[in-house]
Amino acid sequence: MNSSTLRIVTACLTVSVLAAGCNSTKPLPLQKSFSQIEVGQSDSTEVLNLLPEVGMLHTTDAISVFNKQGWSSEVGIVRFSSADSTVLRKDYIQLRSQNALLLTNEKLFVFIQSVIPPDVLDEPYENDTRKHLAILNYCHESLISDALPFNEDQPTLGLVGLARTAINEAMLNLSDHPRRAYQLLEQPGFGFRHSVLGKSRLRLDQDAENIFTIRLASEDLVDIVNTW
Which side of the chain, N or C, has fewer Cβ within a 10 Å radius? Predict the structure, then answer.
């Protein structure tokens, strides 16, 4: 290895180490705030006091907040009840990028906690898998409708798009592998490989009689030019 090649390799390694150092596994600001929002209990005043004004957009019954920190970005959407302003649903999406030489480690995390209406829960499903798919589909469709008023905000639109494609392909994989559907309710969740987002896992939890949470995580190594 000649001296010029050695200098290039050393520079690449230095940049990679510095970039990796800028990416932490600590909770991001919105992530911490959203963990304190209680679906079915918190009201709009409590939520507004928890979330930063910077990056916030709002409608009459929803708010959206976007935050970018280094190589990481996050967006959260809260939907309120028109009757009493309590939280009907909270959608949180996080994307972390970490450089590693000529590759980028991309990590997507999606958290949706929602009140599920009786017409979804009380349907006479032929089995539990059908019921769970119906709940997942409701959360997926709700994410789309929750984000619709904020579609002109491109950063929000980009993260919501990633979450939508992740959940959609997870549901397709569940339908194709019904014998593994029980994994959806267990740790670490239903594992599958997403065609774009790589290694992924999806989990469904019931937090109350009509409140459910879905958690989805995807991770892959991609080249630094064609990231997610």
Answer: N
Token pair 């959407």 in the structure block, residue: 77
What is the residue range of 16's domain?
A: 3-223
Nearest to 222 by CA among 198, 187, 188, 191: 198
Amino acid, single-letter form, for residue 28: L
CA atoms lying within 13 Å on the CB side of residue 103: 8
**Chain segment 105-149, per-residue pLDDT in tens:** 999 999 999 999 999 999 999 999 999 999 999 999 999 999 999
Q: Does any domain span residue 156?
A: yes
CA separation (Å) from 15 to 2, 6, 9, 10, 100? 20, 14, 10, 9, 9
Rounded to an integer, what distance in angstroms lies between the CA atom of residue 38 and that of residue 114? Answer: 10
Residue 144 in contact with residue 168, Cβ under 8 Å?
A: no
Q: Name the domain count of the chain.
A: 1
pTM for this predicted structure: 0.87
User: Is residue 106 domain-resident?
Assistant: yes
